[in-house]
UniProtKB/TrEMBL annotation:
Keyword Nucleotidyltransferase: no
Alphabetical list of InterPro entries matching this protein: NAD(P)-bd_dom_sf, Sc_DH/Rdtase_CS, SDR_fam
Family of this protein: Belongs to the short-chain dehydrogenases/reductases (SDR) family.
Keywords: Oxidoreductase
Protein name: 3-oxoacyl-[acyl-carrier protein] reductase
GO MF terms, alphabetically ordered: oxidoreductase activity
Length: 256
């Protein structure tokens, strides 16, 4: 696919992706951005998997992949991720906030620590990374894109997901408000909201029976593949979406 210039959608752009290690949405986003001509900085708190993902992507895209360990609950680590991207490639053009943490626990059985951790990673982590990236984008003279990973659970109810749904609804509201804060700088802020995306983490927090039931609710009878979500992220990051800001795009075949 080529962009308005005739090159890849993200040709020459510097893209930072959080939670980019492993085989989930983050690494799929990184791969798609690389395929579209970007230089990509991977962030993740799992250093071994981060190094493995960097090395794997570098085989196909030598010189265009960098990695910086980053725990989004650590403000200093977030600053190092952004400054590391700038040191390596001179600037940042796109931040994809993919880091999030879920679980499956009824409110009556959930303790404060579990609630706070999910919100700290998923919502406050998005805030920390966005703030750092926006400050850099504004210092560069403006322009740039933030794409947040939300969830349809920000709109829809699901038992056992109160903490995760509250965090993702917060990401949606944060996206809309932040878009207005930085529009004057030519910076766009949007989000994707997947319903069910197939990645290894889901099997650790939900039973196979629960996953099968969620898949049956989808019009296509299956979960989205991570690359299908990544395609929408790449669109929002590209110059094909220059008049979109403050929007939350559902990546779902599920209907009430």
């Amino acid at each position: 696919m080529t962009g308005p210039s005739g090159h890849g959608l993200l040709s020459g752009k510097v893209v930072v992706v959080t939670a980019a290690a492993g085989a989930g949405i983050g690494s799929a986003v990184a791969r798609r951005c690389l395929d579209e001509g970007a230089r990509v900085v991977l962030g993740d708190s799992h250093e071994r998997r981060l190094g493995e993902t960097r090395d794997l992507l570098s085989i196909v895209h030598p010189g265009r992949v960098w990695a910086v360990p980053c725990d989004v609950t650590d403000e200093a680590a977030v600053r190092r991720l952004i400054s590391g991207a700038v040191t390596r490639y001179g600037r940042i053009d796109v931040l994809v906030n993919n880091a999030g943490l879920g679980g499956n626990r009824p409110v009556t059985e959930m303790d404060d620590a579990e609630w706070e951790l999910v919100l700290d990673v998923t919502l406050t982590g998005t805030f920390r990374c966005t703030r750092a990236a926006l400050r850099q984008m504004i210092a560069q003279g403006g322009g740039g894109v933030i794409v947040n990973n939300a969830s349809v659970l920000g709109w829809r109810a699901q038992a056992g997901q109160a903490h995760y749904a509250a965090a993702k609804a917060g990401v949606m509201a944060f996206t809309r408000c932040t878009a207005l804060d930085v529009a004057a700088h030519g910076i766009r802020v949007n989000a994707v909201a997947p319903s069910l995306a197939a990645h290894p983490f889901l099997a650790r927090v939900m039973s196979q029976a629960e996953l099968d039931e969620l898949a049956r609710r989808e019009a296509f009878g299956r979960a989205a593949e991570p690359w299908e979500v990544a395609t929408v992220v790449a669109f929002l990051a590209s110059d094909y979406s220059t008049y979109l800001t403050g929007e939350v795009i559902s990546v779902s075949s599920q209907h009430p």
